[in-house]
Amino acid sequence: MYFAEVILPLSLAKTFTYSVSETEFLYIKKGMRVAVPFGKSKIFTALVIETHQNKPELYDAKEIHQILDEKPIVTEIQIAHWQWIASYYMCAIGDVYRGAMPSALLLESETLISQKTNLFVDTNLLSDDEFLVYEALQQQNSLKIQDIIAILNKKNIFPVIQKLVDKNILVLQEEIQESYKPKLVRYVRLHPKYESNQGLSELLETLKNANKQKEVVMHYFQLSATQKSQGEAEKNGAKPITVKKLVEQANSSSAIVKALIEKEIFEDYFLQEDRVHFNGKIRDEELQLSQAQQAAFEEIKDRFILKEVCLLHGVTSSGKTEIYIKLIEEYLATGKQILYLLPEIALTTQLVGRLRSYFGNKVAVFHSKYNNNERIEVWNQVLQNSEKAQVVIGARSALFLPFHNLGFIIVDEEHEQTFKQADPAPRYHARDAAIVLAHSHKAKVLLGSATPSIETYFNAKSDKFGLVEISERFGNVRMPNIELVDLKDKYFRKKMTGHFSDVLIEEITNALSLGEQVILFQNRRGYSPVIECITCGHVPQCQQCDVSLTYHKHKNQLRCHYCGYTMAKPTHCHECSSVDLTTKGFGTEQIEQELLSIFPNSKIGRMDQDTTRGKFGFEKIIDSFKNREMDILVGTQMLAKGLDFDNVSLVGIMNADNMLYHPDFRAFERSFQMMTQVAGRAGRSQKQGKVIIQTYNPNHNTIQQVTKNDYFGMYNEQLYDRQIYKYPPYFRLIKLTLKQRDFDKLKEGAMWLYQVISQNLNMPVLGPEEPAISRIRNEYIRMIIIKIPQNVSIGNTKRTIQKMLNSFEAVAQFRAIKVTSNVDFY
User: Which helix (H) or strand (E) holds 42?
Assistant: First the structure.
């Protein structure tokens, strides 16, 4: 008896055993995918992590359906890393597998529904919905679940299908589909019979009355003469020419090319091509580092002799990227793969251009704005250790790529909270997981930031990580001059125009008159977060969540930013029918509107989640701002991260208090980081930049620390508080979130779990607490936070917590409560 141990892409904590034949047993290797039956009739793509001969005791092993790969597409180091993520972040290994793989590699069975053949159906006996499905099946022989949802325009269609199956009209079948298709590009070449001189004169004779076709053929010869060989030169000596290029050059149409193919003057053929390819030109001159950069570069190499991880703490615009490029050069020379992690897709846009000018097309990019097929191509290039993917730039998901020979990982802007996955599981932190991955590959990790997270800086100060600091900006540019504006005073003296103080308007006018650009930061999208009735005080709320609806003026609708619920902007109050409605608070959209009225002759752009939805949303905005097509850019926190614009002399923070008063122990640290990073976008070339911070509380410690660029003051103050109140880095945190639609059941279940945990763990347990937003998508929420001291084994504590969660699930009345664990939550 031979067996394969597999992981399924489902939220299941354990692996499953399937039986295989002896031939399959000898052929299958760790890391290959197999299609397996699971449940009554579903087929899933499972990943083999072991082959053995131990028969499972609790169930009869089913046979696998088929082997999907010729060679492993997941490495052993990856599997071990995934198992570490599952155990450390307390989630199912199936969740990690599903999150790590590009979804096109996870073939799930598509349920196909077709009509029984040779069957007479009395349509009078069918309900309206049943008749619609039956009618659709007359037009095409099979439908998918999604098609039926679209036809009936309702989500719950299973009762309808079930009735039709019961009436013996429909049959269901499972079908697995391979969803990756290589990209084929259509090329043309001249028919061999026209190759000779005699053939050419014959050709011209044939086309003498077809001027448009003749023109296309002449352009074909021109292109053949000028186009360099692309390595796949044709057997007959011609260079490959795409149909698309030929049509463009000849200013013609594909119909004319088609006519030439039909006349047998041209032949068409297809070649497989990568979807993402970069034609970077490699610079010839060597990158010159400044004295401070060179010193940091040498220091980092020294630290790497003894330490696996090093923190580069350099002020904004100190030229950290150039140091990274130098280090990448050194690791490339040894033939190693390099992973460059960034917190935001917007940043990859700028960085790819910079890296490509040094390393040509050795650079690959991997993030969620790429489609499935593009991601699979990068996956395969990394797996094959291809020249095209020696340096991989990506957001946190790039951590899961199948590296063979990883030598160096850069985690840029390591303090960013976007490195932590929030939902769905695995809720991992890319920075911490990268350090563990590097350890498996015996690689080095460089963490870079102008405002490191307190935990990282604490680790560097306590000698766990190496530490290198740069305190001057590149080219000795001075740090920006930061000015505080007291909003209380300005409103009192009536010196505000909308949300702009007279100081900010004056500075924007100066910058624009000098032809310089301005960035304005407001960390809230939409026009206004609240619409209120002046008569009765009613505020429109989301029907499914405990939040007010945000007003989006551009679309004239109210929208919930948690569940996506929308409604048209009301003309009168829903409670008292009054027409006196007013907006409270402001977002990026309102700032943009006010700017248009204050500076009507300036070009104004906006960068937030609403304007960057498309695949190239970020690129378009960043490029047009860099090319000086916009004068003022308004944006949310996307702007705060490492972007480099050399013509920005002024940065305005519209309201610094928004971030300070969040019910979160990291609020002051976050506010400091965000404001310092935004301020760092100003004056990055020769001239000193200026930053205007508008606040109701100019004497607040954190705002004063930003003004003085005093990272150490903020670090020491926060460290003191964290020790007193038992927070990281002195304690590890695990947050358990319980969700359930029934408020009373949730309350009872949360209390039961809290009591069991606090009785069994000798450490602080907080809860069960309602979060600030206590209902999302009609589910009520409760939280329990467990604080684990540094001297207690975190592994044992997690195992104890897991046992208690298992016993919680075993209680019948609590089974409907969903519990999620978030380790080291941010």
Answer: strand 42-52
